[in-house]
Fold this sequence. Notes:
The longest helix is centred in the N-terminal third of the chain and has 19 residues, at about 60-75. The chain is about 40% helix and about 20% strand. It has one domain (about 10-235): LmbE-like (Rossmann fold). It has helices at about 20-35, 60-75, 95-110, 125-145, 175-190, 195-200, 205-220, and strands spanning about 10-15, 40-45, 80-85, 110-115, 160-165, 170-175, 220, 225-235.
Amino acid sequence: xxxxxxxxxxxxxxGAHPDDIEFGCGATLARWAEAxxxxxxxxxxxxxxxxxxxxxxxxxxxxxxxxxQLDAAAALGAHEVHLLDVVDGDLExxxxxxxxxxxxxxxxxxxxxxxxxxxxxxxxxxxxxxxGWITLDAxxxxxxxxxxxxxxxxxxxxxxxxxxxxxxxxxxxxxxxxALDAKVEALLRHRSQWRSTHGIDQDPEREIAAFSxxxxxxxxxxxxxxxxxxxxxxxx
Length: 236
């Protein structure tokens, strides 16, 4: 395993849906933000399919999920949230989407980018797969001045890419209790997802405790250490 990264001056986490970033790297972002990192979140879709209710008002759901994402980012100590609002489920690796993500990278100028691992085997959700490919393609575009030369910010090359939900884990970022607490709190602020994703429905007090325990278990590595797991790529 590689050594933990130095706290970056700026970081950009890219997720397919509201709450993906919190699940994938929320504690790392919270720790870095507490240490002075300018943490940016980029959410690619509007979360409009995030309900099991066939009769749901999807316009209202989008507004709710937007507010929840902003609230969750505040719980992590994030500096700014960028929302692309692609229709949930319709995310594709197109030139226009890559250009939009490239523009965010060039504007935010992160030292570290975090995102979905597109090489994860047996991943069902197309948005998660495509979010990973979009992130990779946008990093390549952002570093090269001949991609999208009309964009207002100059080209930018991050120092490192951390892929969460990684097929091959070779890097851990340590997590202290306050950062883990911030991750759980940020996830709980996605109230619309309690039933469908968090397993919180009939008995909130008990089920919130069980959800928190699950997040802790998922943030525990060999030897009982608290850490989030990634694939680290530095040749960008």
